[in-house]
Amino acid sequence: MKKITILSLDGGGIRGIISCIILRYLEEILQQKDHPNAKLGDYFDMIAGSSTGGILASVLLYPDDNKKAKYSIKKAFELYTEKGEDIFTVSLWENLFNPFGLFSEKISQDNLERQLSDFFGDLELKDFIKPSLITSYDIENRKAKLFNTINAKQSQQNFLVKDICRATSAAPTYFSPAQIRSSYGQNFSLIDGGMFANNPALCAYAEARKIPFADLFENREKPNYPTVNDMMIVSLGTGAEMKSYRINKYKNAGKLAWIEPIIDILLSANAETVDYQLNQMFMTLGKRNRQNYYRINPSLKTASPEMDNVKKKNIEALIQAGLCYVEENNELLNQIAEKLIKNKI
């Protein structure tokens, strides 16, 4: 029985460039070892993403005319390097009347919405080539809103992909909440899925447990309703940045002083907790199967941890951080590629 292969992509704004660099190398290995036109979307049975990871997942799951992956990861990389500045740049006029995003969202959503509309057009969630899980949070009903392809096909929970990407990337203080509508006419007010699942790998595991993959793919080499023993999970972060907060500075700090560290700690701690939980789950398996969980989260090196820093110097630093990881871990990435080839149907 072949494993269910799952790719999980963290949030992180422009830091998604690091994910693109690592995935590009992985895709190139697949092209060398399996097929010259190999695309990552055809090798993973399910792709999950939060925030910028949700946009990456949507690019990888975009269908061509034969219901295969249309785009390689290079297309996503081009989007970040060519369009990132348009999306994240704040004009001098906006800075004057809204310094540091104190009075309203830091960045206008107009450019983001235009770029998403230009790229995804009228593509619908139900048309993705594989099962997906893209996260967001419903601020009016106070609960997680998870977008998945299975629900889109079987119920009234179908959406335009451009709306899903807008919702999953609506990071508070950066972009305003997204107001979107399902194909059935139901309205939702949503913010960035990274608020509760910046690392969506555990959400992806839970979703995969409910999916009859063998029936869906019409192939008995894959299991229905897989357990952890039946899965291979690759969880990809957007760069580890462990900023230290000194006790003397925060011993008697008020609410305003805690805003920045709380957001930073919540996002990183969330990802670390998910990694711990999945590690413990896979450690209960036999020696061979416990090696089917991979958490990849490179050091940022000299790159900025800010999600909206699109200066050319920082873009280059993010690229170099990704390339440095690839150079130091090419054996690991080759191992992942070989397993993807082995478990492909």
TrEMBL record:
The keyword Hydrolase applies. Keywords: Hydrolase, Lipid degradation, Lipid metabolism. A motif (GXGXXG) lies at residues 11-16. A motif (GXSXG) lies at residues 49-53. The keyword Lipid metabolism applies. It comes from the Bacteria. One of its GO terms (molecular function) is monoacylglycerol lipase activity. SUPFAM superfamilies: FabD/lysophospholipase-like (SSF52151). A motif (DGA/G) lies at residues 192-194. GO terms for biological process: lipid catabolic process. Residues 7-205 form the PNPLA domain. The active site is at S51 (nucleophile), D192 (proton acceptor). Gene3D superfamilies: Cytosolic phospholipase A2 catalytic domain (3.40.1090.10). Belongs to the patatin family. This is Patatin. It comes from Epilithonimonas arachidiradicis.
